Amino acid sequence: MINPIDREFKSKLIERIPTKKIVARYKNDFQVDVSRYFSGIDFAEIYECEVTKYRYYYPFSFMGDGVFYIDLSKGKRNYYHERWEHKLALRHVNSGQKWLEVGSGNSYFLKELAKRGVKALGLELNSEEVLKAENEKFEVHDCDFFSFEAKNSEYDVIASFQVLEHIKDVSNYFVKAGELLRKNGKLIIGVPNSNPYLYVFDKFHTLNLPPHHMGLWTGKALKKVGEKFGFSLIKLQYEPISQSELDYILDLFSVGKISVHNLKFFILKAFRRVFPSKLYHFISSFCRKYLVNGRNILIVLEKKND
């Protein structure tokens, strides 16, 4: 088994998930048949890189292809939409820049960049979205990041939102980004936050399983991996968590999952049960602001000087 960050880094087995359960979840939730990805494989394994703490699914053959995302977008109509991290990323725009978006979806972010005088190109595996983009006069290529050909140091910014968690070849992603970025260029990445609750409390959440996701990212892992490939941290942010999302976590939380890291959820669940609603919501609003990170992460990295 090869560590996707560095062949020399050791990994440890964290968990094994029956593939039959994964196939059933996709069929039930999205009416999508993913059985072809798991043919002859009984378990999807989760490993953790001992150096960076990045967690990933194995074997790597689970990764979804263009057909999978066309099928998924039919079952999940709002799969591509405006996101929290888009607004934050747009703060890094300067007119005249050249941007590359990896995984441009329905071209929403490309449209926002165009409004701000930015020359942008998108890469997208969903051929139907590529055709729509072409009809709207946006430049989008039907290819993945690794097969995309461009000159070195061509881009001021490379952005990807909800993409890196789908990629198995993490090391080549960061290497290629470093090659395509100009001096002091920025790499902006938005991913789901797998710590603490998406993995710990809702580990069988369908869209956090392969073939949709191949990696389970935390802010700490993103920072460490970025540094490993020559990037320095500019900013790391977590999406604010809503009251409904916090209540969802508490519904999933059980006493058997208590640890030093998630004791706050046990206490909050107790407060919700015994305190009046107004008092509980007052306490939970403080926790949502200062103690509990939301479901998504945005990191801005800068290419170090050669």
Query: Would you list the SSEs in sequence order as H and E?
Result: EHEEHHEHEHEEHEHEHEHHHE
Strand proportion: 15-25%
> Can you tell me the residue ranges where pLDDT is under 50 for at least 5 consecutive residues?
none
User: What kind of sheet is the major sheet?
Assistant: 7 strands, mixed
Number of helices: 11
For the residues shown, what is the average pLDDT? 90
Terminal Cα separation, in Å? 32 Å
Q: Structural class per helix/strand content?
A: alpha/beta
Mind telling me the C-alpha Rg?
Answer: 20 Å
Number of extended strands: 11
Q: Could you say which overall geometry the principal axes of the C-alpha atoms support?
A: globular
- How do the strands of the widest beta sheet line up side by side? 6-5-4-7-8-11-10
The helix fraction, in percent, is 25-40%
Can you give keywords for this protein?
306 residues, alpha/beta, 11 strands, 22% strand
Describe the protein.
The protein has 306 residues and is α/β, with parallel strands linked by helices. 36% of the residues lie in helices and 22% in strands. The protein has eleven helices and eleven strands. It has helices at residues 19-30, 66-75, 84-89, 108-115, 127-135, 170-180, 194-200, 219-228, 243-252, 263-274, 277-290; strands at residues 11-18, 43-49, 55-58, 98-102, 119-123, 140-141, 155-161, 181-192, 215-216, 231-238, 296-303. The chain has a seven-stranded mixed β-sheet with strand order 6-5-4-7-8-11-10, with helices on both faces. The longest helix is centred in the C-terminal third of the chain and has 14 residues, at 277-290. The protein starts with 10 loop residues before the first strand and ends with a strand. The model has no long low-confidence stretch (mean pLDDT 90).
